[in-house]
Design goal:
The chain contains eleven helices and 19 strands. The chain is α+β, with helices and mostly antiparallel strands and 416 residues long. The protein has a domain of 90 residues: OB fold (Dihydrolipoamide Acetyltransferase, E2P) (Beta Barrel). The strands form four sheets. Strands 3, 4, 5, 6, 7, 8 and 9 form a seven-stranded mixed beta sheet that branches. Strand 14 and strand 15 form a beta hairpin. Helix 2 runs parallel beside helix 4. Functions as an U snRNP-specific nuclear import adapter. Involved in the trimethylguanosine (m3G)-cap-dependent nuclear import of U snRNPs. Binds specifically to the terminal m3G-cap U snRNAs.
Length: 416
Amino acid sequence: MAPPPEPRRPYKRPAISDQQRRRDLALQAQSARRADAQARARALASSLLTTPTPPAATHRHEEEDEHEEEEEHGHNIADVAAAASKLRSSDARRWFARQIMLPEWMVDAPPHLASDWHVFARPSGKRCLVVSSNGMTISRVRNGSILHRFPSALPNGSKRDISGPASSYSILDCIFHEPDQTYYIIDMICWRGYPLYDCTAEFRFFWVNSKLTETSAGDPPSTYHRYRFRAVPIYECTLEGLQAAYSGSTSYVKDGLLFYNKHAHYQAGITPLTLVWKDETCSQYVIDTDSKGEVPNEQHLVLELQEDGKLVTSDDPPVVFGSLDKEFIQKSNLLAGNLLRFAVRDESVKLVDGKMQIGELQFVGKPNRARAFADSHSKALFQYAARHAPLRIDDLVASIQSNNMELESTDVEMQD
């Protein structure tokens, strides 16, 4: 008698990057790294409260830069926080941009989505850090500019509601959603002086929901509570959870989906343990637009010019995408550290061992002055794939279904 046919597995899109390998390395690295979380949180809170607003960081630039998302990387806060108050202009913008945990762009569906990941719909708006301490609350966007200075119902966030030591502080990672004047909390760095850097995402999300209910920060605005704070709905990345995040209704305008590895610590800078993914259904901004708000015929990249003329991404270590000769650099009055925008022709792009290789870059000009970092490699690859062979919602569903089949197969083998 012939054996029964194997159950049909869902089609999985072949991987085009080395994202999974780097994700494994990131998990290993964080388990070996136990930084002084208390000192890092204290230094960040102090800098958020006291550092002057960097010049040339206007709200107009923030809005323009909002959809050139998530390309920064970072270093330990404690190493540079003492000097943060002395920074000016682009240096201050770079420092503040490095304090937020930023996602890579999802170019391949991770294995074990259903068991190892959370997912939620990202609110559209200004990404910012919010700190409450000494009877005041301050929010700063990624370039260091103060967004709001206001009383809040967060711990020690207003003169009316100081409990415990006045210097006790809380730091929240938020997105300010303009239409309903609400701060949506997407992560928590510190609560009443207790740092959460070395806690897993699963634990931090639990604290966001439980601690927020202990306050009246979710209440409608009032004299001593100018803006409402709300936690975003977070789901297990099962088929049901993915569908709820992707298609479910929200009180805010969506700008893609965010995926968090459950075991990820809060790491300042860009990390493959958090991922952003977009399509036309869940975001207005999938393919980058030019200064006129139009999608250019060719893909654009923002790269950083180095001393030796190389053009690199914001990754650590950076990926080299090309170079400029000395004559062009001098003629164009360019300096090391400048961010430059380039157009990329499709025929000059190759994918080799999970990396983009670009044969020719066409200089377009400089991006807006508020921008702190070049594009990341994952963003460049996502933008390229979005134009030619995008990662679709069906690919994410197939990855979850494949994961479920593997778990069912394992269960059957264990029972046998």
